[in-house]
């Protein structure tokens, strides 16, 4: 079974070299006079910021190296959640416009704005609601830095993240369909509204 799974995975990787389709939703957070309160974190957890993220994950050295790289870049601000065993979750803010490396998309929120970068959760600790709990804290941190508006990309299949963004007041800007064929990339943009996504 493991051999079959490995062969299937290698086959998918080979297929992606020739053709790949991705679908993303671009969202925007505008400043709010009455931001919603941040949901509570799980018991025993605390919020980390900036250099505190050097605490790192207990079992994920590659992610720890990525955190070190990001901390060296003054354009990025990191937030995280930790318990007694180390990091459970990290997420990042970017000051200014941003070229997203995986999609080739350019996110430009305009003067004074920023970008919500990716989040990562320890696979063994998923399902704790950390993304939703930290989104309000990310928005508050951005407001404290004077970053507004905030743009971001959410994968169209990531329903929990989309529900969290909707609950936090994000506005949908567009649906982006990206196709790659033999190294060539095409991107199409479509208007979309929250009610069209059927998230409930």
Features:
alpha+beta, Aminopeptidase, 200 residues, 8-stranded mixed beta sheet
**Looking at the structure, what is the overall shape?**
globular
Name of the level-1 CATH class: Alpha Beta
Secondary structure tally, helices: 4
The CATH topology label is: Aminopeptidase
* Strand composition percent: 25-35%
What is the count of distinct domains? 1
Name given to the CATH homologous superfamily? Gcn5-related N-acetyltransferase (GNAT)
The strands making up the biggest β-sheet line up spatially as 2-3-4-7-8-1-9-10
Structural class determined from secondary elements: alpha+beta
Low-confidence stretches are: none
Q: Give the biggest beta sheet.
A: 8 strands, mixed
Round the mean pLDDT to the nearest integer and report it. 90
C-alpha-based Rg, rounded: 18 Å
Task: Say how many strands there are.
Answer: 10
Q: How does CATH name the architecture?
A: 3-Layer(aba) Sandwich
Structure, explained:
- The chain is an alpha+beta fold and 200 residues long.
- The chain has a single domain (20-196), classed as Aminopeptidase.
- The chain has four helices and ten strands; from the N terminus they run H-E-E-H-E-E-E-E-E-H-E-H-E-E.
- A hairpin with a 2-residue loop joins strand 3 (76-83) and strand 4 (86-95).
- It is globular and about 45 Å long.
- The relative contact order is 0.21.
- The model has no long low-confidence stretch (mean pLDDT 90).
Task: Give a quick rundown of the structure.
This protein is an alpha+beta fold. It has helices at 2-18, 61-71, 130-144, 159-167, and strands at 19-29, 46-49, 76-83, 86-95, 98-99, 106-107, 114-121, 150-155, 171-181, 184-190. The mean pLDDT is 90.
């Amino acid at each position: 079974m493991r051999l079959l799974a490995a062969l299937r995975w290698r086959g998918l990787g080979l297929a992606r070299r020739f053709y790949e389709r991705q679908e993303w939703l671009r969202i925007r957070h505008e400043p709010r006079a009455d931001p919603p309160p941040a949901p509570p974190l799980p018991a025993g957890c605390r919020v980390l910021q900036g250099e505190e993220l050097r605490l790192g994950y207990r079992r994920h050295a590659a992610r720890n190296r990525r955190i070190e790289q990001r901390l060296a870049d003054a354009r990025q601000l990191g937030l995280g959640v930790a318990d007694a065993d180390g990091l459970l979750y990290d997420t990042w803010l970017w000051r200014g416009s941003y070229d997203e490396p995986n999609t080739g998309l350019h996110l430009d929120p305009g003067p004074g704005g920023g970008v919500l970068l990716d989040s990562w959760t320890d696979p063994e600790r998923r399902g704790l609601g950390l993304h939703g709990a930290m989104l309000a804290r990310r928005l508050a941190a951005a407001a404290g830095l004077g970053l507004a508006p905030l743009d971001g990309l959410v994968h169209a299949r990531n329903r929990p993240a989309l529900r969290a963004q909707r609950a936090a007041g994000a506005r949908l800007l567009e649906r982006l369909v990206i196709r790659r064929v033999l190294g060539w990339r095409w991107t199409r943009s479509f208007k979309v509204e929250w009610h069209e996504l059927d998230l409930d």
